[in-house]
Amino acid sequence: MIAFDRLTGTAAPLPEENVDTDIIFPARFLLITERHGLGRYAFHDRRFAADGSEIATFVLNRQPWRGSPILIAGANFGSGSSREQAVWTLLGHGIRCVIAPSFGEIFHGNCFRNGVLPIVLPEAVVGALMAAAQDGRIFVVDLDAQVIASEGLPTLSFPIDAEQRLALLNGWDETDLILNARGADIAAFEDRQKRIQPWLYDTETAA
Amino acid sequence: MPRTLYEKLWDSHVVADLSPQQPGGDALLYIDRHLVHEVSSPQAFQALRDAGRRLRRPETHLAVADHAVPTRSRGAIADPLAAAQVAELEANVAQFAVPYRRFDGDGQGIVHVMGPEAGFTLPGITLVCGDSHTTTHGAFGALAFGIGASECGTVMAAQCLRQKRARTMRVELTGTLSPHVSTKDLALALIARIGATGAAGHAVEYTGPSVAALSMAARMTLCNMTIEAGGRIGLIAPDDTTFAYLEGRPLVPHGTRWTQAVTYWRTLRSDADAVFDTSVAIDLGDIAPHVSWGTSPEDCAPITASVPDPAKVQDMSARRRLEKALAYMDLTPGTPLDAIAIDRVFIGSCTNGRIEDLRAAASVVDGRHVAEGVSAIVVPGSTATKHQAEAEGLDAIFRAAGFEWRHAGCSMCVAMNDDRLAPGERSASTSNRNFEGRQGPGGRTHLMSPAMAAAAGIAGHLVDIRTLGAHGA
Ligand code: SF4
Q1: pLDDT under 70: residue ranges of chain B
Q2: Contacts of B79 in chain A (CB under 8 A)
Q3: What is this structure's pTM?
Q4: CATH number, domain at B444?
């Protein structure tokens, strides 16, 4: 996973609630089995008309937000389908940080596994950031210091789980972490469970 | 200390407490079972290969192709991308020795329909799948939740996942559902009441005196829809109905193991004095048939209501969302919901593609015919369900009524196979999501129960199932 420390750039404002993962990555592209190179499908049906031309009014098609590394959205961003492609497509498009009052739970977790920082802030605070984003201001998101800075706004800190912050800062892979640190715990659990719910292991002894 | 069912299931799967200084924080949870499908697994298998990892316990996984597959016919898949995706799944399950339900075999079906039918889903286990509707399996008293593709890879390699403990919500059910009203209506009414994020961060347990009377199919529909209220976990304590459903299925324990298991499963219920963080009470007798009118599952109302008027909404951001939803749905405020004409009917999905659902729809269309200009399909949730329905003669009833009878799959629930709405088309659908473009770019979805979708097909517009008979449509 790519590490995340500090990000500077404009923030694309998407003042809309319930932007679900079907909007972020339409289902028909799920036939692609790669996780890289998905950037061009991000918000596809919002970005492109049926004939493939760009829809000029959509924020990611407008300056100065075409290449924004930050997205600021309404509540419940990334709700719906668990598709991790929603994160991969944002990443492919160059978006490394999403700020919203709340997130779909599975999407929120998927962000951390892919080097994308989801920041949850109260509705009013997101509203203020949204206004600054609409003015095209430059934002700095600093994960180490846990702060967001932007011209004309007081620097504000954001909450984040300590472990997840560390994993993002270091670019750690979750599976590696578990396998390296917890192998003995897992084996001990299995021994215990075999005694309490032995039927869960029957298929293996039979095989 | 008294514990809820969720807490019991959680506690029995903690491999390591990851935040000992903060009780109720993160833990490493053991994962007993993993359902694998063609869409969320390729990247997980690839991650295993890239890291040179093995599957820790191949027998705890079960794979099937359901999302991308065509439902018109079995055999060779015409769409080259879908064919490649299924071929990739088959190569992966072969390489990693994962049990697999062949696409053209009798065991195929939507993960959340096939898993329970096979007896893969058991009470007391943790079960995951790279699919948000994994909530379905909570109907058996399993701790079941949807995960992302990276987590699928972690489960394959380590049989564990890091999880945040959820808060608990009790939905207390009393009373009896009226005739023609189903747990789909109950789910839609609940989501309309608490909102699409009403259960966010919560494990929802459906409890109360009315639960005992609900069939496993009804329970699965209810748990399935929990994710549409934002809850990643829906739960119902296992009881005699659960055990009767499971007994004798291929993958459940047999003989003395069965007796042993049932003894354990009977302990899986919330203690009488367990404390939930949130509680909601619903009298089933109050529930009318519901339909959705907007682009979020919370945009639902009884069929007797009208399209809401944004001008009457005080909160500006809610008003804008409503205006946008109505513009997308091409609906005018004040229009009675039962005046909305439809083009397509879809009966199926992991929410309502079970035999009980097909029976309910068939009883509505029996002796009637789909309205002119409406195209309607019935897609069984699994191949076993299809065979059962055919044995009962349901396929003949549907065909005679002008419905197409299909092979099993996700079909028109998700626009990634051949079945989808054309831009501007409007459907009466038994699936679970009415998001923009969910059933095809520009398509407009109205969610409802199987009986209501069948009735809409007959009438040519959304209609109150309770009055359909009287009109003799
Ligand atoms: S039927 Fe629909 S919701 Fe269910 S698994 Fe398939 S695509 Fe997902």
Answers
A1: 23-24, 469-473
A2: 31
A3: 0.94
A4: 3.30.499.10
